[in-house]
Amino acid sequence: AQKVTQAQTEISVVEKEDVTLDCVYETRDTTYYLFWYKQPPSGELVFLIRRNSFDEQNEISGRYSWNFQKSTSSFNFTITASQVVDSAVYFCALATTDSWGKLQFGAGTQVVVTP
Amino acid sequence: GAVVSQHPSRVICKSGTSVKIECRSLDFQATTMFWYRQFPKQSLMLMATSNEGSKATYEQGVEKDKFLINHASLTLSTLTVTSAHPEDSSFYICSARERRGQGYNQPQHFGDGTRLSIL
């Protein structure tokens, strides 16, 4: 069975603060993929990153960074110097090779950035 | 980049109506399409997997007679909510798996979703 846990329901920050979103996953597969998506109030899903289980390198893309730790089954996401436009729900998701394309989503974390 | 068009974006209709939602890959062939459902302030839950030319595979607890899926071509899948009732009101979103590369390297793209409201 697969599971993705995003324990933080909502995080509120003031603009320019950093915010870290936690994601813990469970799977018995040795090959799997982890994703982060952003869902703004308009509803569409915006793809942010895909990481496979063999690549533990951390990644930085502009103000976004991701920390993948297989030892703790975590794939955390940090927004540096947050902006109001970062306000959205962020989902972590997991896919395994035997069910590729079927994404198991976490519950999501609502990020509220106030000016 | 690859685009998935989902139509309509929003629909409001009376109870008992059947509603069809289209998911179309505009510039790529999709071997597989997926349909998700999202209730307000909840996560996305996979409803079914749609493969071109074959029957859809439904997740446990999803009524196949209620949610009819047709994947007639490599670029189009449709979800029909039959005899919709207020409890079917939800956000439905599709994704399409691009037919290139190897299995798990095939990119997946999401549509913008359909907000269904049944009165």
Please characterize this protein's 3D structure.
The complex is a heterodimer of chains A (115) and B (119). Chain A is mostly beta strands and 115 residues long. Helix content of chain A is 0%, strand content 53%. Chain A is built from no helices and twelve strands. In chain A, strands 2, 5, 6, 10, 11 and 12 form a six-stranded mixed beta sheet that branches. In chain A, strands 3-9-8-7 form a four-stranded antiparallel beta sheet, with no helix packed on it. The radius of gyration of chain A is 14 Å and the shape is globular. The model of chain A has no long low-confidence stretch (mean pLDDT 94). In chain B, the strands form two sheets. In chain B, strands 2, 4, 5, 6, 9, 10 and 11 form a seven-stranded mixed beta sheet that branches. The mean pLDDT of chain B is 91. The interface between A and B is medium-sized, with 21 and 23 residues.
Major β-sheet of chain B, in short? 7 strands, mixed
The main β sheet of chain A shows up as: 6 strands, mixed
The termini of chain A sit apart by 41 Å
Strand content of chain A: over 45%
Write out key terms for the chains shown.
heterodimer; A: 115 residues; mainly beta; 4-stranded antiparallel beta sheet; 12 strands; 0% helix; B: mainly beta; 54% strand
Furnish the topology, listing elements before pairings.
The complex is a heterodimer of chains A (115) and B (119).
Chain A: E1 3-5, E2 10-14, E3 19-21, E4 24-26, E5 32-39, E6 46-52, E7 59-61, E8 64-69, E9 74-79, E10 88-96, E11 104-105, E12 109-114
Parallel strand pairs in A: 2-12
Antiparallel strand pairs in A: 1-4, 3-9, 5-6, 5-10, 7-8, 8-9, 10-11, 10-12
Chain B: E1 4-7, E2 10-13, E3 19-25, E4 30-38, E5 44-51, E6 57-58, E7 67-73, E8 76-81, E9 90-98, E10 108-110, E11 114-118
Parallel strand pairs in B: 2-11
Antiparallel strand pairs in B: 1-3, 3-8, 4-5, 4-9, 5-6, 7-8, 9-10, 9-11
